[in-house]
Structure formats: structure tokens, C-alpha cells
Amino acid sequence: MQCGSNVNTTMWDPVQIFTHHSHYKYAVVILNSPLYWKDDILLQIWKNAQINVTVDGGTYKWLCYLKEQGIDLLNENHNEYVPNLITGDMDSCSPIILEKLKNMGSIIIETPDQDHTDYAKALFQLGQYVKMKNIKLNRIYVFTDFSGRFDHIMGNINTLYKSDTLIEHVQVIQIASDSMTWILRPGFHSIIIPKILIQVIAGADFYQLVHL
């Protein structure tokens, strides 16, 4: 995504995920971390995504979030909330749950390689999937609220840094309940900031901004 008259400029409009434009194609990846999202915000984001991926224990986190919204995915007919892909070394998700989701349409890809994180392996598998399905994505949103562990934080940043080698030509943004994180590589960048973020008083939280 380049623009500019004399120089190439990478455009960033990260909050497009909340606008639901039909031309905006994105994927959702849910890692094994808490989902602190209120109301049905994440449900709408999920339903408007081209591809949804849960990563190992992230599958369980997604099911728990759905239950908080009154949705029992394993025992009710809510196929719109079934992940397209489930990846990881599968040490944090029940085989029974995986089998049920497979029968509901999920593609299960076990990635036991311990030289890479489940996050990195998920991006690679997502890249293979979009090539196979000939899907063009504008962006990938990786949902991860930091647990406070420094090794997890640095591991996620490291994966962001390597994301170009895992899935080409797609911007990857980590999104938490109160922040967004991405890598600015060498070159020129233009970041579109919503007016409400400029005008809002200090201390307003992310959910208030989304609902304004």
C-alpha cells in the first residue's frame, strides 16, 4: 500500500477495522492471551473478517469470550464464529474441542516446530492459506493483550519484526483492548489518526473511543 508523488510512503489507517467497509479485507488472529473486549465489539470484527485464525490456547480463549456473550459455540448453531484455521503445537487446547471444531468446518494445522513461536507459525500458515484461496488482504490484526511477562512481549515484537518473511505484502498490527502496535520499517510513513483521538481528553480509555 504505497502512495506519494516523489517518494513512496506507506499508509497506515489502523482503525479501519472498526468501520466495516466492504472493500477493506483483513484477517483476525487470536493468540493465547486474555480477551478483555466489552460488549459485542469483537464479534463484529470477527464476522467482517475475510479469515479468522485461533492459535492453540487462543481457541479456548475465543470460546470463553463467546460464552461471555451468551454464545455456546460447541453446542449451538453459530457457524459464523467457527475459526477458518486453528494452528499451533496444540499443547494448550483440548483434542475434544479441536475435533468438534474440525467437524464444524475448521482446518486444523498442527505446527510442532519448537524453533518458532506459535504466533510466527500462525502467520506463515495464514500466508499459505491466502495463497491457496487466492485471497487478497489489506491487513492482519493479531489480538493479544500483554500478560506482563517481558519474554512474551519481546517475543511478539520479534515476530512483528519478522512478519514480512512470514507473510508478504500484508501489514500486521497487534491489537489489545487499550493499544495497537506495529513496526515502521525504513522509509516514509503516513499514519492516519482519527480526529477523536486528537480531541479526546487525557485518560479516556480505548472502549470509550470505539463507541464515540
TrEMBL record:
It comes from the Eukaryota. It comes from Apis cerana (Indian honeybee). Pfam families: TPK_catalytic. This is Thiamin pyrophosphokinase 1. Keywords: ATP-binding, Kinase, Nucleotide-binding, Transferase. The lineage of its organism: Eukaryota, Metazoa, Ecdysozoa, Arthropoda, Hexapoda. NCBIfam families: thi_PPkinase. Coiled coil: none annotated. Residues 44-163 form the Thiamin pyrophosphokinase catalytic domain. One of its GO terms (molecular function) is ATP binding. The keyword Kinase applies. InterPro entries: Thi_PPkinase, TPK_catalytic, TPK_catalytic_sf. GO terms for biological process: thiamine diphosphate biosynthetic process; thiamine metabolic process.
